[in-house]
Amino acid sequence: MARRKGIIGWIILILLIAGAVFFYLRFYYVFSDGTKTGELNTFAKTGYVFKTYEGEMILTGYGAKSSTGGSVQSKNFKFSVASDEVARQLTDLTGQRVTVHFKQYFGALPWRGYEKSIVDSVITSEPVRENAYSLEGEIFL
Fold it and tell me: Which of 4, 30, 35, 116 is the most exposed place for a label (fewest CB within 10 A)?
């Protein structure tokens, strides 16, 4: 009987340690760490219980979708912000071209934000300017 209690105790301890390791890897292990540059499209404080800062950037680039020619592609980068100071900076930069540093996790925590990517600093910013180009004598903005 005492041996059975000891085995059950060890099984519970192993399950608790495995659960703690899983929780750490899922929510606190940094999977990706880098920078992204794009136009800051939206930024807002949102949430029912946990008010978090959520934003979206438009990342533009050139690519070839078809064999007949290239096309302009854009991707959206959705992110959360945990720091009030970074949130104030991004609120002032909405609509501008910004470069941000982010950390990406495997899972999102409700008090950290809805997204797996967490922006922790703003590196650079500049106003978005429209480029003029011509195509067979016509000027486009």
Answer: 4
